[in-house]
Amino acid sequence: MILRALVDLYEDLAAQGKIARPGWGPAKISYALCIDAGGELTDIVSLQEERQNGNKTALVPRSMELPAAVKRTVGIEPNFLWDNAGYLLGVDGKGKPERSRKCFEACCQLNHSILDGVDSLIARAILAYFDRWQPPAADEPRLAGYMDALLSGANLVFRVDGTFPQDDPAIRAAWQAHYDGGEGAVMQCLVTGTEGPAAAVHPSIQGVRGAQSSGAALVSFNAPAFCSYGQEKSLNAPVSRYAAFAYTSALNYLLADKNGVQFIGDTTVVCWAKGAEPIYQSVSAAFLFGAPPPAELKDGDLQAALKSLADMMPYKDLPLDPHRPFYVLGLAPNAARISVRFFLQNTFGAMMRNVRDHHERMRIVGPDHAENKLVPLWALLRQTANQNSRDKQASPVLAGAVARAIFAGTPYPAALLEAVTIRIRAERDINWQKAAILKAYYLKNQNDDCPKEVLQVSLNEASTNVPYTLGRLFAVYEAIQEEANPGINATIKDKYFNAAAATPNVIFMTLSKLSLKHLRKLPTGQRIFYEKQVGQIKDILGESYPERLTLPQQGSFDLGYYHQKQKRFEKKEDK
Prior knowledge:
With about 575 residues, the chain is an alpha+beta fold. The protein has helices spanning about 1-15, 85-90, 95-115, 120-130, 145-150, 170-180, 240-255, 280-290, 300-310, 350-360, 375-380, 395-410, 415-425, 430-445, 465-485, 490-500, 505-520, 525-540, 550-565; strands spanning about 25-30, 30-35, 40-45, 50-55, 55-60, 60-65, 80-85, 155-160, 185-190, 195, 260-265, 265-275, 325-335, 335-345. Among the domains are: about 20-180, no CATH class; about 460-575, no CATH class.
């Protein structure tokens, strides 16, 4: 399903002229080898472009459409018309002159096999170059001033009398014939269903965070344990050369768009809609990942747009079709390969409905009208990690599971609740994001010990849930202590919060005695105010408290504490 969706994306992009056709692809080129009609090297010209990188200007290679790059391991595999100095010049930069000579000879042989018989002045000049050039030593005078750059692995391309060979129609036709007629076992493609030469090795994927920078494989087999029926390499799961080129080209195109790629822990996330319209990517990134909203959303009302799309209705300022098929792919590094963390597909509107429902579950009262904010996924996951540790990232597995639950509308993983609870107990505090996660978790993963009456946006004073009410009482006791001892270093929250949430029957007897001492220090009016609050809450609790609270009951306790504490900061309504 993944490869089929990516092949469809490639065909949409190719129809729009945004991506190279089979056999061609982008390459980063730093220098041009200028040769004359007789094949003589006349000059080396830099093709690098100036780019602004922060406050500095840097030279970066130029991206050019060239014959598709080969996939290299430890063997010698030349590219056609372009490559590094070891292949095009035979320059040795690793203390292996014999290997550099073999690289040059392999490149010479490949170019001869494709260009022999091609009626083109440029083709004949390139062949003449290979016939007359001798791999040089490091003191070759024609390479003076460029040796350091050439030895660094920079890519080069030919240029004949000011013309690049890839622009010559005869050379393009020769390469296409060579590429289309390449050797390979004729098998039925598992992606397209057509018969044709199968790709033994698929092109590399570049741009996945943590994977090899030179590229990693999404589909590969390299051990006898993975082979069956005598098939080797990727012929175990035959994919035609066209489909292999198409899906890798489409995925590399998505990963190259830095504005469209999102990261969740170690997972690189890309998304796209059928038709390859980029507006779908930018809108989904704004809804879930907190990316800047698209320019088409003039009024910046993300929530209104999200509500409309979730109801399968188009939004006035966005050219979006809620019924358009939409895909989300999460990739993670795995040595020389790429692992699929998750792959989700649905209509765009249905997926945005799941996102809308998630944000609705996350709504909770907080500072600066937090209940009206969309919590980005990175901010949610940040609450599961210790921000004082060296590694401040959430668990990669948890991050992928949470993203999958949100997009698919499935229950949240239990690991999310566990991680947030651990942070609350370790920090002995609960901020609005953690409270929102608790509320969202129990709204989706329903539990009778944390009923819906406590899962409200703001304080529910009518709730009779005992753990929730105990949390409220603890917040009032804390407020009394803070009023009686302003600026105190260690409050009852620091000393008793965890114990009160776990074994309330023991701890609240101590807290009740402490609160009486603190009340005596308050002015009469303030003391009466808090005594009424304590009395009203105790009327709900009765005479006895539970010996222990279960984990869901502790969630109710935490929400009661948070809601009651936030009530203190609400502005009084103007009368």
